[in-house]
Amino acid sequence: MFQKSPKKPTSSITFKTPEEIEKMRVAGRLAAEVLRMIHPHVREGVTTEYLDRLCHDHIVNVQQAIPAPLNYRGFPKSICTSVNHVVCHGIPGPKTLKKGDVLNIDITVIKDGYHGDTSRMFHVGPAPIAAQRVSRVSYECMCIGLRMVRPGIRLGDIGHAIQKYAEAQHCSVVREYCGHGIGREFHEEPQVLHYGNPGTGVELVPGMVFTIEPMINAGKRHVKVLPDGWTVVTKDHSFSAQWEHTVLVTDTGHEILTLPHDETL
Ligand code: MF3
Ligand code: CO
Ligand code: CO
């Protein structure tokens, strides 16, 4: 999501009840299921608006859920498709995917009033080495963050670990967008920065649910928004990659709500 001014939080962190957690498990599972459904369709020659249509119809007709991006702050489509040097919030359109493209597909569904949010990278045929590299680094960054989630740890610890790994791999962390609390609202407190200082920030408590979704660039960290008001691209045109899961803080650690049951990190 868009990083807000640090001065005034608009609302506070919500702690989910067991009943709410069960609903968030359902929403998370549905979001993960859309990524799995769309995978075989991500091929050379298809347009991103075709992928959007398949996801939209699946979410609405099969899952009887709501695609959260559609009309969110005026976003015109049901999913985000961010190709190559697009960092995030790419709008599905008539351009066809070509061999060597890499893209992030970001799915958020609302079921029974609760959100599930997850995204991953896809490769269309063999990808350029630089693109493969940044995809892998962003995946590792997400995993590093997720594995740290447990009561008592602070968000600054997580942000720091992600930043340290990304920069050691000669990649950069996008600052303007971050993970977020999630629940009845798409974007809740707290903001989950993918950089920071150990021992700072919100301390995790059981019942918190938030996303970890590092946006990692192969080149410099700087980004700009295109005139459509949504599409975020790298200023230096380098490849960018992102993976995202929704995670619950449990008494003993965490539970990834958007991880398919037959998958591990
Ligand atoms: N799913 C994105 C996130 O992870 C937000 C997309 S907002 C949209 O926070 F309007 F672009 F859909
Ligand atoms: Co998100
Ligand atoms: Co998302």
Automatic annotation (TrEMBL):
Its cofactor is Co(2+); Zn(2+); Mn(2+); Fe(2+). Signal peptide: none annotated. InterPro entries: Creatinase/aminopeptidase-like, Pept_M24, Pept_M24_MAP, Pept_M24A_MAP1. Keywords: Aminopeptidase, Hydrolase, Metal-binding, Protease. GO terms for cellular component: cytosol. A divalent metal cation 1 binds at D106, D117, E244. GO terms for molecular function: initiator methionyl aminopeptidase activity; metal ion binding; metalloaminopeptidase activity. Substrate binds at H89, H187. Binds 2 divalent metal cations per subunit. Has a high-affinity and a low affinity metal-binding site. The true nature of the physiological cofactor is under debate. The enzyme is active with cobalt, zinc, manganese or divalent iron ions. Most likely, methionine aminopeptidases function as mononuclear Fe(2+)-metalloproteases under physiological conditions, and the catalytically relevant metal-binding site has been assigned to the histidine-containing high-affinity site. A divalent metal cation 2 binds at D117, H180, E213, E244. Residues 22-251 form the Peptidase M24 domain. Gene3D superfamilies: Creatinase/methionine aminopeptidase superfamily. Its EC number is 3.4.11.18. This is Methionine aminopeptidase. It comes from Candidatus Contendobacter odensis Run_B_J11.
